[in-house]
Specification:
alpha+beta, about 140 residues, five-stranded mixed beta sheet, Aminopeptidase, 4 helices
């Protein structure tokens, strides 16, 4: 499938919001995300969003952060969200976005890259493993 990738800009906030809402709904949640928070996120040093676009329509995104890591004495890359519009899943878009961020992480001399998935999201877990990610830790969260 032909599509192109680009870095999100504040003008893409509405499309980012719609994709995050689709992700949240798919997981049975709602997201408090607003267009203004997308703009704040993009302005934060080290944070970015890669977008997949086809026929001038945003069809997927990958959000990430480059953060310093003491243990590795260098930067690490944390992939936070990866979402593809439902009708475009299984067409290689997620793989392409992940490969693009892996290459960026290497260019930024990152020492590691991490991604998480819900335990029941077997398709995502299989995708990540097929791209060289390994089970390494248990990721815990506390929500406020």
């Amino acid at each position: 499938m032909a599509f192109k990738m680009k870095d999100a800009a504040p003008s893409d906030s509405k499309d980012v919001l719609e994709l995050i809402q689709e992700l949240a709904a798919h997981e049975g949640y709602s997201s408090p995300l607003t267009e203004s928070y997308v703009t704040q996120y993009l302005a934060h040093f080290g944070c970015g969003i890669l977008l997949a676009e086809r026929d001038d329509q945003i069809i997927g995104l990958l959000s990430y952060s480059f953060i310093p890591n003491l243990f590795h004495a260098g930067n690490t890359c944390l992939i936070k969200e990866l979402v593809i519009k439902s009708e475009y899943r299984g067409k290689g878009i997620g793989s392409a976005l992940i490969q693009a961020i892996i290459e960026r992480a290497e260019q930024h001399d990152c020492k590691e890259i991490s991604i998480s998935a819900m335990p029941e999201n077997i398709p995502a877990i299989n995708l990540y493993r097929s791209m060289g990610f390994e089970d390494e830790a248990v990721f815990l969260e506390k929500h406020f």
